[in-house]
Amino acid sequence: MKALVFDGTLKLLDVPLPVRWPGTSLVKVNLAGICNTDLEITRGYMDYHGILGHELLGTVIESDSAILSGKRVTTEINIPCKTCDLCKQGLLKHCRNIKTVGISDYPGVFAEYAVLPDENLHVIPESVSSLKAVFTEPLAAAAQVFESVELSPDQRVCLIGDGKLGLLISMALSAKKIEHRLVGKHSQRIGLLGSSSGALFLSIDEAESYDRHFDIVIEATGNSSGLAQALRLVRPQGKIVLKSTYQGIPSFDVTSVVVREIELIGSRCGPFDKAISMLEEGTVDPTTLIENIFHIDESLKAFEAAKKSLKVIIRMD
């Protein structure tokens, strides 16, 4: 089968068809989305070598599960050992021996087929289009902000970053009727959020007048400079929710965090059931973010496009 493999360089290769084992399903990949984490892996993040990709819409073609067989599915990306002390405490996505699809110690979905744990798979309702469904994983990550911090309409909320994840977070906030300021570099992208958006766009320069103003700042720039900007915008005793991952270790003003009693909150993967519900209810339409769809034969070109685009999708058919 064809697969996009990173081994220090990005290559489209022919590799053996994966063989499933009990508790897993063989999935024919239909669509797979490129996210910032994939791009960061090619720059050295996580030191991962193997098949990339973790945003999936596929069809189960072989499984022991009658519930999954023949169904369109997406996948959660974390595969815990369930035996370590953290797993036994219920912290499964923080497992000491965790494997992560297409990111750490487990093959990804930029391939024609993938073998995935049954318990990670979620069936997509028939009413949800495949193009919407491929956004389930990043939309779940966006929805995790509601699990990470209490949000209410009366709070002053700022979201920094108008890239792929930032715009999905903005959509999720609007779906929950949370008005917010969206700080970014591309004012035209506000139009991608729909007429019911609760976002008001601020340029980076305009945001400077909001010094220590916001109760909650969500940082989703994908850039280490975003944290410094978040520190400038959050009020004393406010909260910063961190959504970005990237290669390298950022530097920031720790003294400000201590003196102003700012709470930093890491926020990672999120609830798939809530993401699927938003897609099914139609409160979020992420397909407006798609700029290009490439066949897997053009996957190297797709990665180059993803470096300067919003959402790029790889299709297998």
From TrEMBL:
GO terms for molecular function: metal ion binding; oxidoreductase activity. Residues 22-126 form the Alcohol dehydrogenase-like N-terminal domain. The keyword ATP-binding does not apply. The keyword Kinase does not apply. Keywords: Metal-binding, Oxidoreductase, Zinc. Residues 141-315 form the Glucose dehydrogenase C-terminal domain. Its cofactor is Zn(2+). It comes from the Bacteria. InterPro entries: ADH-like_N (IPR013154), Glu_dehyd_C (IPR031640), GroES-like_sf (IPR011032), NAD(P)-bd_dom_sf (IPR036291). PANTHER family: GROES-LIKE ZINC-BINDING ALCOHOL DEHYDROGENASE FAMILY PROTEIN, NAD-DEPENDENT ALCOHOL DEHYDROGENASE. Belongs to the zinc-containing alcohol dehydrogenase family. This is Theronine dehydrogenase-like Zn-dependent dehydrogenase. The lineage of its organism: Bacteria, Thermotogati, Thermotogota, Thermotogae, Kosmotogales.
